[in-house]
Request: fold
Amino acid sequence: MSEDYFKRVNKLTPTRLWINNPTPTDAEKSIKAGAISCTTNPTYCMKLLQNKSEEKRVYGVIDEVIKEYDDDNKAADIIQQRLVNDILEIFLPLYEKSPNKEGFVSIQGNPNRDDEPEYIIKEGLEYRKLSKNFITKIPATKAGLEALEALIPENMPMIATEVMGISQAIYTCELYSRVSKKCGKYPPFYLTHITGIFDEHLNNVVKKNNIDISYDILWQAGCIVARKQYKILKERAYPGILLGGGARGLHHFTEMVGADMHITINWKGTADKLIELDPPVVYRMFNPAPQYVIDELLKKIPDFKKAYLEDGLKIDEFKDFGPVNLFRTQFINGWNYLLKVIKERREKII
Reply:
């Protein structure tokens, strides 16, 4: 009997699976399937509340926390910490076997305050107390990068997230290199490319503006930028590992297979589907797009051009770049959903 898909990916390629926003049950399934680490984001509690099998457990945590904390935002933060702590425990044995290489679980804090570097730093240092396999996740925006710069000397494991453009990637890697060299600390460092959200944004733009472009060309956009980012990281020997994320299709994993990179995907609907379909493990990362495809995207979609060019964005533009704003809005909506539930539960208890 042949091994499952991800176990074959692990055996035949350097590509590795992380799992995103899992329930405890899904976390355990993902490890058995071959996942090595885990990401969560500010929509985590909302996702669990929308899962019938998790609803009762999560409401129990919410009711417990709101009795301890009067401030709703503080309560939301503690609720997220307690729920993610269950996942930290599940992945801890992997970390203990391969410290600073496997078993990480990320937390990304209150997105309503991600313009405040000091607050992001405070969150990271507080979350670190939860477990030795915690890894902070910080947006690659001006404010987030200020926080990242401050946390490198703390030897804080980190994921620079919300990376949609080549300019973001280069700026972040050069910052990490400069600060690490100065302070002598080289904490584990992962640099995302949020391929699926990038594609989702471009699809929205094409639909809204009635842009005449082939679906076959548009389908390749996110992967083209991810491939360029990976190539630059390797050619320039930048630090860290590329971490694909924000998958919106199976190809956001399968098209990256073969690269020395990690990819985080949801269990339900993506990882479980790939196990069910059991596709062949084929190196696809190094299949270049024809130049006419890139030219068409550059010509017709300005946001693709901003993402693809090395000088496409300045640091002050990172936060408001279309796909970054889309991702951040999803995080804010997820966090505010939790705040709404907290308010409703308080009223119910009273």
